[in-house]
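worker-03 picked up job from queue 'complexes'. Input manifest follows; two sequence lines, order preserved.
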Amino acid sequence: MSGAVTIERVDGVPVARVNKDIDAASAGAVREQLGEALGPDTHSLIVDLSETRYVDSGGLDMLLRLSDRLKHRRAMLILVIPEASQLNRLAAIVGLPQAMPVRPTLAAAQQAAAQLPTLESGTPLP
Amino acid sequence: MNRALETQVDAERPEATTTPEQPTLDSSTPERPPGHQATVSDCVVGYTSLEDMLCALLERIHDSLDFDTAAVLLLDEDRGVLLARAARGLEEEVRQGVQVPLARGFAGRVAAEGRPIVIEDLDHAEVVNPILRQKGIRSMLGVPVHVEGRVIGVMHIGTLAQRFFDEDDVALLQLAADRAALAIDNARLSEQRAVTAIMQRTLLPDALPQIPGVQLSAKYLPAGSGVKIGGDWYDVFQLASGRVVFVIGDVVGRGVLAASVMAEIRIALRAYLMQEQDLPRVVALLNELLVTMGRNRSATLSIVQFDPDAQEIEVLTAGHLPPLLVDRAGRAVLLEQPHGLPVGVGACQHYSARRYPFPTGTRLLLYTDGLIERRGESIDAGFGRLKRAAGEAAQRTDASFADRVYRVLLDETPLEDDMALLAIETQPLEDALDLTLHARPDVLAGLRGTLGRWLAAAGADEGELFDITLSTSEAAANAVEHAYGAREATFTVRCEHDGEVVRVIVADHGRWRALRPHGGGRGVEIMRSLMDSVAVDSNDDGTVVTMARKLSAGA
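worker-03 finished. Artifact:
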């Protein structure tokens, strides 16, 4: 079955590739699939929007809320938006780069994830 | 025992069945008071339901023939079983929906052999229906119900005490069955016709979907009338991705069962395609479903998935005639596909699909064999005629393309079978785009696809295309949210381009929800940032969002 999100772990960091638009119709399903990528020891989640053409306000809202939720768990949501993507202008309008790291490539996002301190196992979650 | 009755003993099955000779239907034969036969035939008129009529008939027969139980079973030809439709003293038989296979048991043998059968002692006979034994029936007489030489059912009576049904009893029951036969057949036909008509209405799309840049037309002609509904059907629907799916198919056989299999295939295909884009996999799933459901019906079909953004079609055929593509120059090409068996034949089938470019101005015809096949003619002659007709129809503009192809073909040879024809034409988008959409989130992706193509044609660059499309999608998402809870609500999107400025008007009939708008209030912020102007006009009748953006190419 074709899902909207494919998830793989690279060096222990979940990378979620979104392969369709995130809008009012799909935001809920995408959010659910991203949630499945989160484990108790997840310190970062990379959401790769390289294949995504449109993200509407509902999709942006979902990403901002997810980022907030991860921050509460001392974890980080990191976005990949290629330099040529139209999504960069949109991200700037709603202040996405102020809320979470936005990187132009997956490699850059992975580098950002590697710099985050790892949670010691056994640390209770808030 | 009456001399006329010969005892027939089956060497393989030792049962005490006697088969009387076919009695003559000379009305003077039975030694009954006059008037009985008139009673029997009178009761078959004036009843609306088949069951009511049959029950009344059994009641009248009871006045003439002494018995404890009686039942009428009618033949379901598609499944080869007799179904209990009316009973007297055996009401459970109808309530429990007793089915007797042809040639098995008492009623099954009466129907298969097409002649009266007498059982003197049920203890020594093969009986399928357990109710007969439970009731303690001892002796039975069954006669076939004939119409024009074919058996359409069985009427039987039974007694608790052993009884020797004589020639007169047989003749009277057969007479009752014969008199009732035509009325039963008529009532059953009109019953099936009503069911079939309802199914036919629900099987074919009420209206073809409105897809900008795509002109659809269809023609469906059931050749037989009434219950002889054909097994042909077609379907068109748009997926959330904006792709459009066209299906045409033919279920083997006719009548209500063929129609119900058609309905199952139609729903299964829609359901699978909502989850899965891969056509070969979808058809393999459909095939597994049909085989595991044990319908014993196969169907041929063609599926075409049209991607308006890529201007491409993907074609899969399962034992069906190849679609015909007519290019811009009017050249007709059959899109012959790798071998694919009809669905429902056997498990574990594999299918494959091919893709073809489908640029603006191209036409595609999906059809069933009734359109081209003529008796005593090779299929190639039919293909040749179709290609010529499609080429000729492509040059004309009167009526729809499906209509034109059909008329050109019909001028040459008359139709012999039922047929379905679905025509797809891609056309350039108009200067102004007018869309009416269902107020559901799943229309947004299709809207963005259509608008993107229209904007590209209007000369918008990549950035402008993104900004205008996303802003329109935001306004549309608000319109969808306003209609929340309203059934069948729609909203409209109009896009105009005056050579310089693109104007988009999104109008709905709901209330503007200022407090909790879509996307946490960011929608309007996004629209205002991406467009040159945004005006929101909201009143009791609904909300109209008017946006404009100047194109750099037009400056």
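worker-03 released lock.
The beta strands of chain A are 5-10, 13-18, 44-48, 76-80, 102-103.
Chain A touches chain B through 21 residues (CB under 8 Å).
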